[in-house]
Design goal:
seven-stranded mixed beta sheet; 18 strands
């Protein structure tokens, strides 16, 4: 039996409980978690913004050590350090055939499986986003693990599984920031802080961080922000004033709220690019008029998982870590145990801190 944070129903508080994990079956891997990041997507799953079968063990950003492998698993052995990949691509759907593995139609089919049972009553449990990282150990499909790159500490490697792949990918793959361009990043949580570092790595000449919390300015500047704007009704006007009244070449929205998406769009220069990373609810309606779309000539695009291919991108990120260009530790503002996840959710709702990291 292992301890895990169980979501009993949508909208219910998480419960710390003991669960029974089976031995890994064919094509499966059992992993002992070293760390798991608490992502805003976990909050979106718990409150129903994103739907998954429940009861479930949430947590999708993690790293750990392989305990055992099932029949047919090759390339991974007990004792290996691995990063969990919550969105494994099938390699055969239309998106995968186009090389757009981040849009794989079958990536989340595993979330509907029963992967464990609650020890107290034997009730079925689902793995939130395939990997159920809010637990001391988990059993996942072999496609959900990737080797931890050399030179990356196992605990820090957890952040590569979502926050860094998403933030880095939003800047480099979706927005395609070029050296000398100006960038605004809306939201200084885990993904936003990663995006700020990515913009600096890309050689942006000016990196403007935007957040509702004045207390996050030091975090944002440490990540690479050259300017900091406390979000308000005047955010777009402030950003234009910081950029010679032009607006930024690229705005990256990491919040998922209609007002923030609109502010990011309004902060982008004529002909610039606005990339939306944040996951918002169906009630968050963003409106544009036909004339402004023509006049501004901006590009508005969504971004799923940073438009990243984890197998391709993890070695690139590791090289940035080894070279000192990417500092994973600066994303973490709180290290907690399983019992601290509820508090981490409360901090996300309140807009406090960067990434909370569950350390086992």
């Amino acid at each position: 039996m292992v301890r895990a944070a169980v979501l009993p129903a949508v909208g219910a508080p998480l419960e710390i409980a003991e669960i029974d994990l089976p031995a890994p079956g064919p094509g499966q891997v059992r992993v002992r978690l070293a760390a798991a990041g608490v992502c805003h997507s976990d909050l979106s799953l718990s409150d129903g913004t994103m739907r998954v079968p429940v009861p479930a063990v949430l947590g999708h950003e993690g790293a750990g050590t392989v305990v055992s492998v099932g029949e047919g698993v090759t390339g991974i052995a007990p004792g290996d350090g691995v990063v969990l990949n919550w969105a494994p691509s099938c390699g055969s759907c239309h998106a995968c055939s186009l090389g757009e593995v981040w849009l794989c139609a079958n990536a989340l089919t595993g979330a509907g499986d029963v992967y464990a049972r609650r020890a107290s009553d034997g009730s079925d449990l689902h793995p939130g986003l395939n990997v159920a990282a809010f637990a001391e150990e988990t059993v996942v499909a072999a496609g959900c693990v990737l080797p931890v790159p050399d030179g990356v500490p196992l605990t820090d490697a957890a952040l590569l599984g979502c926050a860094v792949l998403t933030g880095y990918g939003a800047v480099h793959h979706s927005a395609r920031v070029q050296a000398g361009e100006t960038v605004a990043v809306f939201g200084a949580g885990g993904v936003g802080l990663a995006a700020l570092q990515a913009a600096r790595i890309a050689g942006a000449s000016q990196v403007i961080a935007v957040d509702v919390s004045p207390e996050k300015e030091s975090l944002a500047r440490e990540a690479g922000a050259t300017d900091y704007v406390v979000a308000s009704d005047a955010t777009a006007r402030e950003i234009r004033s910081l950029t010679g009244k032009q607006g930024v070449d690229v705005a990256v929205e990491c919040v998922g709220r209609a007002v923030t998406i609109r502010a990011a769009w309004d902060s982008t220069r004529r002909g610039g690019r606005t990339t939306v990373v944040g996951i918002g609810g169906k009630d968050q309606q963003v409106t544009f008029n036909a004339l402004e779309i023509f006049h501004w000539g901006r590009t508005l695009s969504g971004c799923v998982y940073g438009n990243s291919d984890p197998a391709r991108d993890l070695p690139v990120l590791a090289e940035h870590v080894r070279a000192g260009r990417l500092d994973l530790g600066t994303l973490v503002t709180e290290r907690i145990g399983l019992d601290g996840i509820a508090g981490a959710f409360e901090n996300m709702v309140a807009g406090k801190g960067g990434r909370a990291l569950v350390v086992f």
